[in-house]
Amino acid sequence: MEPFIHPQELAFDIDGVVADTMATFLRLARERYGLSHLSKEDLVSFDLQSCLKLDPEIINDLICTTLDDANTLELKPLDGAAHVLSHLARRGPLRFVTARIWPESIVQWLQNLLPRVPQGFIEVSATGSPDAKLAILRQFGVRYFVEDRLETCELLANEGLHPIVFDQPWNRKGNGCPFPRVKSWHEIQRWVLPLEDDMR
Ligand SMILES: [Mg+2]
Question: Which residues pair with 76 in a beta bridge?
Fold first, then answer.
C-alpha cells in the first residue's frame, strides 16, 4: 500500500518527469548528426559525456538545441502526465522546480499541456542549478519531490525532504537506491489521488 501524499506537499521536476526531453535529444541526434542507432536505453547516466561516445561539442550542441525555445515548445509529455496533473490542479496550485535557467518557454509548454488549469495554478521556479532546488522546495513548504536525477534526490534526502525517483534509464545505476521509485504517472496517481478513477 502506497502512502498517501497530500498534493500540497508535492512538487515536480519537469524534464524527464513531465516532459520526455530525452526523446527530443534523440530526435535531434538523428536529424542533426545521423545518430540513428541511439536509444533511450543508451542514456545510462545523467552525465551524457560518460555514456555516449561522442565529441563533447556534439553533446553540448544537442543539449542546447534540445532546451531552446522552439524545441521546448515541441516537447512530448510523458504518458499520463497531463491527466494526473489536470486532476491534481483541482486541489490547488501545481508546483514545478526545474534546473533550467530560463522558464518562459517551459511555462508556455506547461500551459499548452494543461489548457484547463488556470495559469495562476502553474507555478514554475527555474533555479539554474539542481542544487538550488532545495531552497525553493523549502520555500514552497514541499516535502515530496518527483525527480529523475539521482544526485538531486540524494541532496534533498540529506536535507530531510522525500525524493521520489521517476524511473528512467539514467537513474537505474548503482545498487540499493534508497528512494521510492515510480515507473509511470499511473503510479504517481496512486500515491496522490488514490480515490480518483483509474486512468485509461
Ligand atoms: Mg529532470
Answer: none
Q: Tell me which residue has cell 502526465.
A: 81
Indicate whether 200 pLDDT > 70: no
How far away, in angstroms, is 14 Cα from ligand 1 center? 6
The pLDDT mean for the chain works out to 92
pLDDT digits (tens, 9 = 90+) for 138-176: 999 999 999 999 999 999 999 999 999 999 999 998 667
- Residues bordering ligand 1, an ion, CB closer than 5 Å: 13, 15-16, 148
Span from the CA of 122 to the centroid of ligand 1 (angstroms): 17
Q: Where are the alpha helices (DSSP H) in the chain?
A: 21-33, 48-51, 56-67, 69-73, 81-88, 104-113, 133-140, 150-158, 185-192
Q: What is the pTM of this model?
A: 0.93
CATH number, position 188: 3.40.50.1000
Alpha carbon of 147 to ligand 1 centroid (Å):
6
Q: From ligand 1's centre to the CA of 138, what distance in Å?
A: 18
Which structural domain, as residue segments, surrounds residue 43?
A: 21-73
3-state SS assignment for residue 31: helix
Average pLDDT over residues 95-103: 96
CA–centroid distance, residue 187 to ligand 1 (Å): 18
